[in-house]
């Protein structure tokens, strides 16, 4: 009999479920089925929709759509292009965090970093501001933290250059946390010739030396975040950035564990404990997952994500989720989603 591990329901603070506006790529139903199949019982959705989530009305519309369809607990990050500070108080009531982009990516919603101070001062101090920053904007991002008394989270750190600056900021006692994606931990720029457009993302894949640095400094990394960023094959061929990851993150981490690069305790810490603490999310002992440690091969055709592809198609992983219990109800078991009432909740932070 293969070993079965019981873990708390995992929390993914960084997903792009694309609804409303781009439901050809993903929607709340397929995206949250992918979450459950991957062991995530809470996801926090990003605001770079086709129409960015920068008004309370758009956020409310998005939440109403999610309420009808979501299969797991879900919360939302609000967005800003720097021109909606007057709406922050209202937007924050329904949001978990505020996401701002200092670099260009899907949607093209880049913020002038000169606006950061004002944004930090306006978004409620008990909610996280999340930054997309890369090598060319990390200095200004770290400088913006000086004297700051509010949490800031750096998303998907790709490289040694970025992580070194975050470590320096942490050593100074600045209020910063950071996350890393499976992309930057498990593939490098050397994989891009093989993966083609399916290896294109923001921040881009870096060198093996960068990846080795991230693994060597895992203790300085607070969170594993999937950055689940589904796109259709057509959109990828046309140059869209992003990789789906809700169903592959935990299997990849289990593979790293089997190789002695990571412990189960670190997986739980960075996929449950720290994300819950940092984002102020409620936890529930009656929400847990069972993982069957039996080798299986990832197949595109078996994925729940609507986009139907993964850079890890055809690769063997050492184990996967066999059962998910959400608030006491079995909502996923061996590839099936029992049809009884699903107790999934829409979250706002600090409301437990
Ligand atoms: O590769 C990416 N895809 N990086 C981002 O920052 C955005 C994401 C998306 O929305 O597709
Ligand atoms: Zn993202």
What does this structure look like?
49% of the residues are buried. The protein has a single domain (3-351), classed as Metal-dependent hydrolases (TIM Barrel). It has 12 helices and 14 strands. The model has no long low-confidence stretch (mean pLDDT 96). The protein has an 8-stranded parallel β-sheet with strand order 2-3-4-5-6-7-8-9. It has a 4-stranded antiparallel β-sheet with strand order 1-10-13-14. A two-stranded antiparallel ribbon has the order 11-12. The chain is of the alpha/beta class and 352 residues long. The protein is globular.
Looking at the overall shape, the CATH architecture is Alpha-Beta Barrel
Q: How many domains is the backbone divided into?
A: 1
Strand order of the largest sheet: 2-3-4-5-6-7-8-9
Helicity, in percent? 25-40%
Percent range for β-strand residues: 15-25%
How many beta-strand runs?
14
3D shape: globular
Query: CATH fold name, please?
Result: TIM Barrel
The level 1 CATH classification is: Alpha Beta
Low-confidence stretches: none
What integer value in Å does the Rg equal? 19 Å
What compounds sit in this structure?
(4S)-2,6-dioxohexahydropyrimidine-4-carboxylic acid, zinc ion
Structural class, please?
alpha/beta
Let me know the largest β-sheet: 8 strands, parallel
Write the element-wise H/E pattern from the N-terminal end onward: EEHEHEHEHEHEHEHHHEHHHEEEEE
- Mean of pLDDT: 96
Number of helices: 12
Span between termini: 38 Å
CATH superfamily: Metal-dependent hydrolases
